[in-house]
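Final report, closing paragraph on structural work. Over the funding period we assembled a curated collection of sequence-structure pairs, and we close with a single example.
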Amino acid sequence: MASAVNCCLSSSCFTLQSKLKTLSLKNNINSSSSSYNMHQNFRTLSFSNNVSHNLFPKGNLSFSTITQKPTRHSVVCEAAPKKADSAAKRARQAEKRRIYNKAKKSEVKTRMKKVLESLDVLRKKPDAQAEEIFPIEKLIAEAYSVIDKAVKMGALHRNTGARRKSRLARRKKAVEIHHGWYTHDAAPNAA
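Its predicted structure, as stored:
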């Protein structure tokens, strides 16, 4: 068997290679009027099972015509690979910031809770000594540091940070007043 099977019709010629690698349709310039009527507009063409036994052992191969719309001129350009969508990138960045800010806020709340619980325990203690406030002052200093860092990084608004620090200082002052340890440091009048 030849390497290519040629089936020529009067108005067209189909070339089908034995391995089905290429399939081409070519129009002939000279066509007779009788064959034009018979194969008008390339109606369904088929290769039956008995035409080429080795190529089509199971049935038919059919070609149908596709009606074409009026010709439209269009230019197709291949662009560079698409960059990442900016909205998707912003969403990823926002999610990353949200998780980071949530951790910072949680740390602030945890530090404040430790200080406030320690102050409540000290307030309820009837025989508390003035030296027992020093470990709590250390906790307050750590809480202030965490609050200031959260404000610096933008996780908390500066007014919120100031309000939280003020809450801790007021609660400490209330405990000191309750036990009588508070001494008012009046600023000397400069006149």
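The beta strands are 4-8, 12-17, 23-27, 45-47, 61-63. The chain has a mean pLDDT of 74. We thank the funder for supporting this effort.
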